[in-house]
Amino acid sequence: MYQTSMSRSNPLCTPFFLAVMLAFLLAPLPALAEQKIGFVNPQRVVNETRLGQMAKADLARYVAEKDRLAKESAAQVATLRKEAEGPGLSASDRARREDLLRRKAAQHEQLLAENARDIKAEETRLLQYVMRRAEAVLEELGKKGGYAIIFTDPAAVGYVDKASVDLTERVARELDGRSK
Amino acid sequence: MRNIFSCILAGLLALVCAADALAKDSAKDTGKTLGWGRVYTVRGKVTVRENPSEDALAVRVLKAGQKVRVDYEDAGWAAAFDLAESVRAETRAQGYVRLLELRAEARPETRLEPASRADVSDKPEKSAKPEKSATFDKSARKQPQKALQDQDFGELRVADRKMAIRAGRDKDTEFLRLLQAGQRVRVDFHEDGWYAVFAPDEKVRDLKRAWGYGRDKFFVPEKDYSGQPLPDKKESPGRESASKDTAAKETAGKDTSTKETSSKETAASKDGHTQKQKSDDVVAYSVLGRQADALRPLAPVVLRVRLDAASPPAPEALRKIVREIWKAERRKNEDLQVEVLLPGMDQNGLAYGIARFHEDGRLKEFWWREVVLRTKR
């Protein structure tokens, strides 16, 4: 009688409580089941978006500007070389011109090295600029789509089932939409 | 019958008035858009250069049959503009042409004079500023037009700072010229806190002969001026060289809009910025920062500025703008790299335009990034 009355009055044994507990236990399972993994190819994002194309055009303009500087400098070196190798120069005059040529040639070499370094740096800056915008898209896409991880390094991924996890096109489309 | 007749008469009268007004308006418009500079038709090839120098980069070549508008003539060079260019601003020039080359290879068109030029009696023979007097404000026209022969009209005063002379009694009217600190002028027609400013040796009390208008508080009697006096320069009203004009652009507005500038500076100083206000045809900008690389002493000092421009200037205009900024901001013998940002762009992000310069102010390197325009806002 006591037991019966206890079992009747114990709230832990009510069907309602059991249902709630079950719900709590099972609730995280679907969420875990929806966690996905994605992959984005940064090079394709640059190649296939308007923003990326524009960055490429900017870089081409920058390279052209650097080329112009290099050509000007090369022309100066050529002129000095012509002068230094010209006939009818006294020994001292020739030595002076050759010295001038050596210094100008060294400056030219330095300019070429600086240009190469600057172009590389500009390329990195522009690529970073595009990828930073792409990252914002990725973050939003990841949150909305329930992605736990989105890889952006092709080398870090051994196998990618492109049909199911490659988000490059979606990211490119979204990025284009934002940069209109 | 009489009523009908009077109605027809009134209608005809109204039509005549309207036609007259329309004709005046269209004439004024034509003058505004077309009436400046000189237009040439090129017969041979004329090279347009980035700077007024033979060594400067050739930015384009004008071919036979092409028309070009030139202005801002100085030292044998003139700024070349697109024929359709409506705004007379050096910053909008395509480049510079050598006048000798232009005259040898082109013939001048009939000068397109502004209609309003008719009411300007003493204009400079030079193309410098044909619209100057045309843009004098209404208050100028309200003044008595008759010329009074008066040896000692007004009074001689001294500008106590560099200050702009404007086309009207308002800081927003067109900039005409720059007065140097200590420069003597004759002032008269005091109204609304503004003086009409004349050459110190002007004999005729006539507003048409005034250089323009200046704020009264910046003119002090000679005895009260404590700075270095400047020798008088005899100049005909409105006559200015392009170089002077350029110099004026650099400093104009800093003084005339002192109130605005100072208030802006106060507001901006909280962020560690300085604000510079430029004359009408030069875009205003604010300096965001100046950074030197301590580890690389030979690296250029980077000056970042934000242009106060509603739309990004075209690269050609940007070249001019960065040059003006370089002139205004460069400190002694500094290798200054100018980086230009636009409103809405991240202060520490990529700049829109970047320029490096030769020692003499010619552009050495210039490039711009269109990618930043896509996402700046």
* Rg of chain B (CA only): 24 Å
Tell me, briefly, the overall form of chain A: rod-shaped
Number of helices of chain A: 8
Report strand order across the widest sheet of chain B: 17-18-19-20-21-22
Low-confidence stretches of chain A: 1-8, 28-32
Question: Could you outline the blueprint of secondary structure elements for this entry?
Answer:
The complex is a heterodimer of chains A (about 180) and B (about 375).
Chain A: H1 2-9, H2 15-26, H3 28-34, E1 36-39, H4 42-48, H5 50-85, H6 91-145, E2 147-151, H7 162-165, H8 168-178
Parallel strand pairs in A: 1-2
Helix pairs in contact in A: 4-5, 4-8, 5-6, 6-8
Chain B: H1 2-34, E1 38-42, E2 46-49, E3 58-62, E4 67-74, E5 77-81, E6 95-98, H2 99-105, E7 106-108, H3 138-142, E8 148-149, E9 155-159, E10 163-166, E11 175-179, E12 184-191, E13 194-198, E14 204-205, E15 212-215, E16 219-221, H4 242-251, H5 258-269, E17 274-276, E18 285-291, E19 301-307, H6 315-329, E20 336-341, E21 353-357, E22 363-368, H7 371-374
Parallel strand pairs in B: 19-20
Antiparallel strand pairs in B: 1-4, 1-7, 2-3, 4-5, 5-6, 8-14, 9-12, 9-16, 10-11, 12-13, 13-15, 17-18, 18-19, 20-21, 21-22
Helix pairs in contact in B: 4-6
